Structure prediction request, 283 residues.
Amino acid sequence: MLKGTFKVYGTMKKTPTRTLVITLPLLLIGSLQLTGCLRRDIPPPPPGGVYRSTSGGAQFDQSVSLVDQSGKLIGNVAKLPIRNIYRSKQKPGTVYFTAGGQGAFVSSDDGQSWRRIKQPLAAVTSVARLASGVLLLSGSSTNQEGFFVRSLDNGDSWERVLTIPALYQRKRQVIEIIKPPPPPSVFVSSIVIDPFKPEQVYATTSTGEILVGEQSGKLWRNLSRVESGQRNPLTNQLIASIRKVVPSTHRDGELLLITTSGKLVRLRGDEAEELPIPSNRSI
Prediction:
């Protein structure tokens, strides 16, 4: 059973956060940006990045070393804009994180050092590794489309398994003087593995769809859609972005959805019920 906790913070506080960790190290993540490869001496990293604890949260040490394929230190990840972090259940020492337009990174030593993953997306939003070893990435392209890609060989090669069309541009009116900005990119905001079917995943999109990926993410279908009633003034399309999906570990097929407005929605089959709790970001 996986034991350990990952938390995301905008800034690190002076008072350490205490979290019980029994067997696996604890990693805390701040706001990050890649420093790049340096030819000579690499200066100490600035505050931020990944913090690792092997003492049950009593003390945290910064672990932001960026290495190349041979393990040589080439920089650090102390300022990367990290979005999601994921630890493999099959390989507990392997940890992944995504950093939007900076890509995706992996550690094979419990977060002590990090390596960039070669992948085809312009921006990466979420990652998951299935029990079969299939690696799934989601994100967007330079054309503002949403993409799912998967790798069967640990990231050496990738295949596109789903494309989510970009939002269409609203037609300009004759009397408009200022050209409206283009619509935002479509992206997948969350990928989680079904606790009852280890080769099936759930995903949510920035346009409100809940997707199901079957056969190790090879086949996809639309499960449902959450609509807010609000519309994008540029495209006239419904706005229903979902921040996160949490599948129930007790009832097969039941999902909890967190919207960008902080609402909590319970999805059972085709029934969507909004739960009366205060605005939230995580559950």
